[in-house]
Amino acid sequence: MKIRQKFWIGITIPLALLVTGCGQKQDLNNSLAASPAPILSPTPLPTSTPVIVSPEPTPVSVATPTPEQARTKIEKTYHMNKNYDIVPNDPDGNKKIVLLTVDDGPKDEDMIKSLIATLDKHEAKAIFFMNGYRIKQKPELLTLIYESGQILGNHAWDHNDLKKASKDTVDQQIGDVQATVKEITGEVPQFFRPPYGSGNDYVKEVVKKHDMLYMTWSNGSLDWEMTNKKNDPNKVIENVLNQLHSGSNILMHELPWTAEAMDKLLTTLEDKGYSFVDPRAIELTMR
C-alpha cells in the first residue's frame, strides 16, 4: 500500500509543476498534502497572481488642499477699519464691495452644499465662522467647506460670551479651534469672530497671538431672529439691503432661510453694482 502511494505522488508532483508553471504560482505544500492524488482538469488559470497590499490607515477627516488653494496667492489690497467695514488700500480702489460671512456651523451637509453652490455661481468667497464643538461632531463638513475653496473662520469652541470668560477659558476657546482645524486641513483660520460679537482686550490679544484678524460685523441680516416656524427669506434680503453701504461686513448664519435667500441676495447686490471681496485679500491688521 505504501509503495502505491509513493508511486502516485511521484506522478502528481511533475504534473502539478507543469500546469502551474504556465500560469499562477501554487502552494507546493498543499499539493504534497493532498491524498489521494487529485484528478487534473483543464481549469482556466489566471495569468498572474494579484498581490494584496494593505494600505496605511489614513484619517478620514483629513482634507487634501485643492489645486486652487495650493497655488493661489492673493495680494492684500483691502483692510478692515474700526467700524469693521472693508476698505481698499488704494484710495482709488473699488469701494463698492461687501464681505460675506456665515456663522455657527458646520451643521448640515445639504445646507452647506447649497450655500457653496450659490457662492460658486456668483464667483464669491465667504468666511465660514465655525464653532469647535460642531467641527468635532462633523469634521467631514469642515473638510467639505475647505475643499470647496471657501474660507475658514474661528468662532470659538463653544458659542459662549468670551467677554465674561476667564483668561484660561479664552485661551482654550480660541486655541482649541485653531489646533483642530490645523489637524484636519493642515492650515489654521486667519479670521476670528467672537460669539455674539462680544469680546474684550484680552480676547483681542489672544486672537492677535494666533495671527488672526478680529472682527464683528457692520451689516446684520437678522436671520438669527427667525425660527423654523416663523421665517421669511425675503426679509433676510430686506434686512441686508436696509443696512447696505460700501464695505459692508455682512453677518449671516447657516440657516435654511438664509440658504434659500442667498442666490437672490447676491443677484440683487450685483445688480446694485456691488462685488464680493475675497477674504484672502484683506490684511490681518485693523487700521
From TrEMBL:
<feature type="domain" description="NodB homology">
    <location>
        <begin position="96"/>
        <end position="277"/>
    </location>
</feature>
<dbReference type="InterPro" id="IPR002509">
    <property type="entry name" value="NODB_dom"/>
</dbReference>
<dbReference type="GO" id="GO:0016810">
    <property type="term" value="F:hydrolase activity, acting on carbon-nitrogen (but not peptide) bonds"/>
</dbReference>
<keyword id="KW-0479">Metal-binding</keyword>
<dbReference type="Pfam" id="PF01522">
    <property type="entry name" value="Polysacc_deac_1"/>
</dbReference>
<protein>
    <submittedName>
        <fullName>Polysaccharide deacetylase family protein</fullName>
    </submittedName>
</protein>
<dbReference type="InterPro" id="IPR050248">
    <property type="entry name" value="Polysacc_deacetylase_ArnD"/>
</dbReference>
<keyword id="KW-0378">Hydrolase</keyword>
<dbReference type="GO" id="GO:0016020">
    <property type="term" value="C:membrane"/>
</dbReference>
<dbReference type="GO" id="GO:0005975">
    <property type="term" value="P:carbohydrate metabolic process"/>
</dbReference>
<dbReference type="GO" id="GO:0046872">
    <property type="term" value="F:metal ion binding"/>
</dbReference>
<dbReference type="InterPro" id="IPR011330">
    <property type="entry name" value="Glyco_hydro/deAcase_b/a-brl"/>
</dbReference>
